[in-house]
Amino acid sequence: MKATSKLSSRGQVVIPAEIRKTLGLAEGDDLTFIVNEDGEIKVEVTKKYRLSQLIGILKTNQPFRPVEEIRDEVYRTMGAKELKDGEEN
């Protein structure tokens, strides 16, 4: 695929819609420009994802637990540890 764009007076380049669509680019995506010895430019895309988009991407053998349940367990554990530490002093 090949497309043409112009450099604006502010140094900005518009990536043609066809290329944005093909690469799945969206506003806010980071692009890294790499210039090789021959003067060719390579553009690498770094996608940004919301945490909610990443849920389920990593496999685990643990069942899903609501955040509230995990928080309650941490509080109970911390409370029990503080009580135990207090008895030792």
Core attributes:
single chain; about 90 residues; alpha+beta; two-stranded antiparallel sheet; 3 helices
Structure overview:
The chain is of the alpha+beta class. The chain has a domain at 58-88. 37% of the residues lie in helices and 13% in strands. A two-stranded antiparallel ribbon has the order 1-2. It starts with 16 loop residues before the first helix and ends with a helix.
Can you give the helix content as a percent range?
25-40%
Strand content range: 5-15%
Instruction: Count all strands and give the number.
Output: 2
Radius of gyration: 25 Å
Q: Secondary-structure element order, as H and E?
A: HEEHH
Largest sheet: 2 strands, antiparallel
Question: Topology of this protein?
Answer:
Elements (H helix, E strand, L loop, with lengths): L16 H7 L6 E6 L5 E6 L4 H4 L12 H22 L1
Antiparallel strand pairs: 1-2
InterPro entries: SpoVT-AbrB_dom, SpoVT-AbrB_sf
Keywords: DNA-binding
GO molecular function: DNA binding
Q: Brief overview, please?
A:
This protein has 89 residues and is of the alpha+beta class. It is 37% helix and 13% strand.
